[in-house]
Amino acid sequence: MPGTILLVGCGKMGGALLGRWLDAGVADRVTVIEPNARLVPDDRRVTVLPGPNALEPTDAPEALVLAVKPQVMADVAPAYRSVVERGAVALSIAAGLPLRFFADIYGAQAPCVRAMPNTPAAIGRGMTVLVAAPHVTQPQRTRCERLMAAGGEVAWLDDEALIDPATAVSGSGPAYVFLLIEVLAEAGRRAGLPADLAMRLARQTVIGSAGLAEASDDDAATLRRAVTSPGGTTEAALGELMGEDGIARVFERAVAANMRRSQELGS
User: Fold this and answer.
1) How far is residue 258 from each of residues 128, 173, 223, 233, 267, measured CA to CA in Å?
2) CATH number of the structural domain 3-159
3) pLDDT for 148-165, tens place per residue?
4) CA-to-CA separations, 160 to 95, 98, 127, in angstroms, rounded
């Protein structure tokens, strides 16, 4: 059922989620703490406040969604302790900050959930992983799941240690895909294609391939092999991409670097 939400921060990710909540009708009312009111959509269900001091003492939202950068969370989150004490589940979408970080702020028994969405949530095609502290009730888990499912698919983790590799794959993954479009288009341009056509070819190829992967029952390896004729042009290209120091090793290093940075933020 729809309820009331307190959203702290309305930047790219917070704003994307807010838009999806309004479209999906998963909240009756959303109070947004955001100094820059221009970032917040004009909607009768949304109240914009410049800071926590503007909250009414009796405000009791069902969920407190913390959508500020991890670097400032320690300064921002403590202002909302009373909101959690009144029964709100605290849902953080900040990378790297573990559940113990929020337990130190809101108390060891506080209901806290970590979520890691990605930017395709803005169009309802996102992927979010979540992990809950032990004291989160089933209705609170359901509430958090509904909020994040408005942006796409969700998956719960039983082990918080898995959220760093999940962040490295899906949380940051859209940037890798956008980079693929960039470098594929640039390679086409260097091969002689007009720049605008090279970008169009690269972009639509990624879009179409993702759609085919979604529509097919086959896994990615099977789909790849279906495009690869023995002795053909695709096989020649894959020989470079799948070589000893090819794309697999590059992604291993990228995921490892992502996880190291996530752990640094958490410490």
Assistant:
1) 17, 10, 28, 33, 14
2) 3.40.50.720
3) 999 999 999 999 999 999
4) 12, 8, 17
Alpha helices per DSSP H over 25-167: 73-76, 81-85, 99-106, 138-149, 163-166
Contacts of 127 (CB under 8 A, 6+ apart): 117, 118, 120, 152, 153, 154, 155, 170, 173
What residue segments make up the domains of the chain, in order of their start?
A: 3-159, 173-266
Structure tokens at 14: 């917070």
The candidate with the shortest Cα–Cα distance to 258, out of 102, 118, 77, is 118
Contact status, residue 4 vs residue 57, Cβ threshold 8 Å: no
CATH topology of domain 173-266: ProC C-terminal domain-like fold (1.10.3730)
What predicted TM-score, i.e. pTM, was given to this entire model?
A: 0.89
What's the distance, CA 145 to chain centroid? Answer: 13
